[in-house]
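I have been asked to look over a protein record a colleague put together. What it holds is a sequence and that sequence's fold in token form. Please read both lines and tell me whether the tokens look consistent with the sequence. I do not need a full report, just your reasoning and any doubts. This is what I was given:
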Amino acid sequence: MLQSIAGSSNALEKVIHGEELSFNDGMELMKNENVFVLGAAANLIKKNLTGNTITFVASYYLNYTNVCAASCPLCAFYRKGTESDSYTLTIEQILTRARIAINEMKATELHIVGGFHPKLELDYYEKMISEIKKEFPSITVKALTPAEIHFISRITKNSVKEVLARLKGAGLDALPGGGAEIFSKDVRDIIVRGKCSGDEWLNTAQIAHEMGIRTNCTMLFGHIEEPQHIIDHLIKVRELQKKTGGLITFIPLKFSLDNTELEQKGLIEKESSSIYDLKVIALSRLMLANTMKNISVYWVALGKKLAQVALSYGGNDLVGTAFSEEIFKAAGKTTGTSIQELASLIKDANYNPLQRDTFFNILKPAI
């Protein structure tokens, strides 16, 4: 079985036997046109790590503002604050949404992200978290990506460490993994405008890990990147995890084209193919095989059917219910689901569904 999967590929033979893949190995696999073999190898490694189970979390996405000092060509969500549909939630509005999420939707996690608001003070974020925790002490608050933390640090003239310390004191439990996009400068400078560099994202995440705050990490693919940018990103993620062990899961995010500047300017005419999507997910598992247990499949970006297939290409997690998700919705994606539907999607793909918490502790079998 092992030999038949590896075939004539030195890189596949290495990873199946537990060796770490180099940049050149990764490039070899990115150029391999047999995506089914890549998927089989990734699935074999996944099953050795997590068996036949697929997890997800009951998560409510709370976007506190769409006002953003950045204006990234990849984003359809941001507003500059003058548009009729721009908004910033008050603390009471945030608490109202938290009550719905926890009491009615049975969320165990609040995933809180927003735009880079140029006028919000650190007190706003502290109060947001502390008021949620005061009313719901057992809820996990996973709030503010490393990119947001870096921006808040810059705009409030506090160090990253000071921002994180104050937010942790308010009850912050973990950071989402957004804003990583692609770390390579030549691509990042085109798809990102007004956001931290790749190195600044990694440094912010490392500081969080050293302070006992764990994070996720994403990679946005399917836009203008080349194979070397994917492999470079994965190796940088791997090196961060070796240093700190602070990453909870890695999430390859398929770029959504609709309503973005990249679409309007004709830089990208169509979204990436399903074959490419599956290859990137498989490569993520193969490159991170010895350092990351969890590779999450974001069904909101992929669509539910392709997400089911991706579970056999190295993914062991469906991220979560993403109740009230707004960012991918702005780019034309359908974002509605339920705990029951995610469990059914997993069962239909011949896996055992388990509901987890933010840190991948199993809460219960999903019914």
